[in-house]
Amino acid sequence: xxxxxxxxxxxxxxxxxxxxxxxxxxxxxxxxxxxxxxxxxxxxxxxxxxxxxxxxxxxxxxxxxxxxxxxxxxxxxxxxxxxxxxxxxxxxxxxxxxxxxxxxxxxxxxxxxxxxxxxxxxxxxxxxxxxxxxxxxxxxxxxxxxxxxxx
Length: 151
Prior knowledge:
By secondary structure, the protein is of the alpha/beta class.
C-alpha cells in the first residue's frame, strides 16, 4: 500500500430540526495522538453537518495521509462507496432525475480533499456500541446546545 501516514477519522453530524440548529463532531486518531473537533451552524441540515464533519477532519491534516473515515451517514458513505460523486461530476452536478445535487458546495470541497488524501469510507451503525462514533455524536450535540444557549 501507500507510504502515507495512516489516520483514522470518526465523524458525525446532528441537527435540532431539519433544517435547524446543526452541529458536527469528529475524532482524528494518528498513532497515540487523538484530536477532537466540533462546530455548528444556526440554520442548516443534518446532511450538511455530516459532510462538514468529514471535511473539517480532513482539512486539519497537514500533509497527504491515508485516511480511514468512519461515519454513520449513509448519505456520505454511499456517495463514495457507490460512486455517486463520479456521476454528479459528469452530469454537471445534476442527479439522474436532472435535479441539482444538494449540498454541491460541500461535496466539491470533500472531493477535492479526497484528491489530496487517500480516503476509504466505512459505514458504522449510529447510536450503537461504537465508542468513537458515540463520542462524535456527543460532540455534535454539544455544538448544537452551545449555539442554542447563545455561545
